[in-house]
Write a structure and sequence with these properties.
It is built from eight helices and eleven strands. Helix 3 packs across helix 4. The longest helix has 16 residues. The protein has a nine-stranded mixed beta sheet with strand order 2-1-3-4-11-10-9-6-7, sandwiched between helices. It is 31% helix and 25% strand. By secondary structure, the chain is an alpha/beta fold. Strand 3, helix 3 and strand 4 form a beta-alpha-beta unit.
């Protein structure tokens, strides 16, 4: 039986209303979790924070990318979102955050996020587990090195004090972390995306490839491969948190 099928999910999105990746993101998370998209409720963080009842009704919170928004920026919507993430941590709400979510959770909990094109990554990149990652029940099955789908210009330069670093890449030290005091895991890479998903993202945001890799978008596929190993992270998180795995 797929334990994930019985859970209710709340996906926090930071995307414009006309962004086609709104639906794509739901489909990506539902695919790797092995659940129907109807199990995933979506909340637009640009306009409001989820109500207490919306949060309570969800068993698990998901965060992904943001399209055109930065966790290193400012603005009322971002301060509201960061405050909500601090509440998730304080409540011990099971949460899995990738990309923008990874950066926002780090900043919310006292870390530092900056825009740095010298450390930007797009495509499929190699990552290496730290000693803590090799001992972690969710990350250790990946092996010492593994591949992850990337698409970011911001990076976390300092983790929160209570975060445990799990993985790094050649350009970016802080690629994955968890909290020692809450069931929250965060990855700079996208474990919810496969190769085709990443190609679809870049087709929507072609400026990433031109700005970061300095190649025509039509050649981007040469930088990508499937990452079946990282697609198992979310199911293992569910099993670990809700199944006592």
């Amino acid at each position: 039986m797929n334990l994930a099928e019985n859970l209710r999910y709340l996906l926090l999105q930071v995307r414009n209303a006309d962004d086609p990746m709104q639906t794509h993101e739901v489909e990506s998370f539902s695919r790797v979790l092995g659940v129907s998209p109807e199990r995933i409720s979506v909340h637009d963080m640009l306009n409001s924070r989820p109500s207490p009842s919306t949060t309570e009704q969800a068993d698990m919170v998901l965060l992904g990318g943001s399209g055109h928004y930065s966790a290193a920026g400012e603005g009322e919507w971002l301060m509201r979102a960061l405050d909500y993430l601090r509440q998730l941590h304080a409540a011990g709400k099971p949460t899995f955050a990738s990309c923008w979510g990874f950066q926002a959770m780090a900043r919310a909990m006292g870390g530092e996020v900056i825009k740095d094109l010298q450390r930007a990554e797009v495509g499929t990149h190699t990552l290496t587990l730290t000693a803590a990652g090799r001992a972690d029940p969710i990350f250790s099955p990946l092996g010492e090195t593994f591949f992850g789908q990337m698409g970011h210009e911001d990076c976390v330069t300092r983790l929160p004090e209570n975060a445990v670093l799990l993985a790094s890449s050649r350009r970016v030290e802080n690629q994955a972390y968890c909290f020692a005091d809450a069931p929250i895991y965060c990855t700079q890479f996208h474990p919810e995306l496969n190769r085709n998903d990443l190609l679809a993202r870049v087709k929507t945001y072609p400026e990433y490839v031109e700005r970061i890799e300095n190649i025509p978008p039509e050649h981007f596929g040469e930088l990508c491969r499937d990452t079946l190993e990282t697609e198992q992270l979310l199911p293992r998180f569910v099993e670990h948190v809700f199944g006592g795995g």
